[in-house]
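Hi V.,

Quick status before I head out on leave. The structure for the redesign project is tokenized and pasted below; the design run finished overnight.
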């Protein structure tokens, strides 16, 4: 029976996809195959996790040419006899997913977690109604492209895999990539942080951001925010937004300061291992989902925390 193919251009995400694929492979009794495109180091790392890696060396392929990448993955899936393709549901992965599904004639789901098999078809959970509920959805076509929410799966255990070269001819898309440059400004990756100190509209004074940053630094974490602080007040870049329109984070510790806990925010942080909420309203809904809740004014808490953390 046809196998499952996984691909992400980010090594940690590529590893999570292997774990996700293994869950399905056990139920479907099919092999898992992983792509590494123009990345020898990634091929080696995935192989060290026991993966059967197929390495494509296509120097002329630019990852920003999403149509060309989708074409390469489609050809690889055909060569490797894979009808199910798992990608990561980050910005680029979602675009690849749509294009790939169209090329393969496959059903497609993005932002999926908790994958499972139902009557031989793959399904998974997705946020619905703005994150207020979870929909369990199933792809009914034979060919399936699924973009898996980052951090939904652990990294696979170490193992002994293999690396084989795969020869794929690149068909350039109609977009010509002329130049790439690192993103200007704030390029923090809050999804990768183990500790997040997130602030909301309860932070009244922009000057206090310095204290929040100092607290986050003392803890070895990153600063994140609710949407209004980035989009309305412009105090932070949109890279730092947690929630439906921002990032879905799964830190070990999330300290949420002056955030009310509306569902569009909580959907991005509810998987944190420990949630500490600080709010001057004991009835704020964030207090209901917190492991530790402190009813206090940020004006008092921030200097006290900074002092305590040295
Ligand atoms: C389609 C859509 C998508 C959205 N996506 C997102 C998203 O991705 N992320 C997101 O965050 N929001 C999103 N929102 C907005 C969301 O609905 C809320 O408006 C937003 O999360 C509220 O931000 P907040 O908690 O910082 O502010 P508020 O709701 O205003 O809460 C502020 C909190 O601070 C407390 N507070 C006030 N003063 C103090 C003080 N001095 N000390 C301590 N506590 C204090 C208050 O009691 C209150 O609980 C979205 C909305 C829509 C419609």
């Amino acid at each position: 029976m046809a196998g499952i193919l996984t691909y992400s251009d980010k090594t940690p995400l590529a590893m999570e996809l292997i774990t996700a694929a293994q869950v399905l492979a056990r139920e479907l009794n099919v092999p898992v195959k992983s792509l590494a495109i123009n990345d020898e180091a990634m091929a080696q790392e995935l192989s060290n996790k026991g993966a059967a890696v197929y390495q494509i060396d296509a120097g002329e392929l630019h990852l920003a040419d999403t149509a060309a990448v989708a074409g390469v993955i489609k050809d690889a899936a055909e060569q490797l006899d894979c009808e199910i393709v798992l990608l990561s549901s980050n910005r680029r992965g979602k675009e690849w997913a749509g294009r790939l599904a169209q090329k393969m004639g496959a059903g497609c789901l993005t932002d999926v977690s908790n994958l499972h098999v139902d009557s031989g078809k793959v399904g998974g959970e997705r946020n619905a109604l703005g994150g207020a509920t979870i929909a369990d959805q199933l792809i009914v076509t034979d060919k399936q492209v699924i973009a898996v929410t980052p951090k939904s799966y652990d990294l696979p255990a170490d193992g002994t895999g293999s690396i084989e070269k795969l020869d794929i001819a690149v068909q350039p898309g109609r977009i010509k990539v002329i130049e790439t440059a690192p993103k200007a400004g704030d390029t923090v990756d809050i999804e990768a942080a183990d500790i997040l100190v997130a602030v909301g509209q309860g932070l009244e004074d922009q000057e206090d951001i310095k204290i929040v940053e100092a607290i986050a630094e003392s803890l070895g974490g990153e600063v994140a925010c609710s949407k209004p602080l980035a989009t309305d007040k412009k105090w932070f870049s949109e890279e730092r937004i947690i929630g439906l329109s921002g990032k879905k984070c799964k830190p070990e510790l999330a300290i949420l300061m002056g955030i009310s806990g509306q569902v569009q925010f909580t959907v991005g942080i509810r998987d944190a291992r420990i949630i500490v909420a600080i709010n001057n309203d004991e009835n704020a809904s964030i207090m209901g989902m917190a492991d530790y809740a402190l009813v206090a004014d940020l004006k008092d808490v921030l200097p006290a925390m900074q002092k305590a953390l040295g």
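Above is the designed sequence. The first strand starts at residue 3 and ends at 7.

G. will cover questions while I'm gone.

Best,
W.
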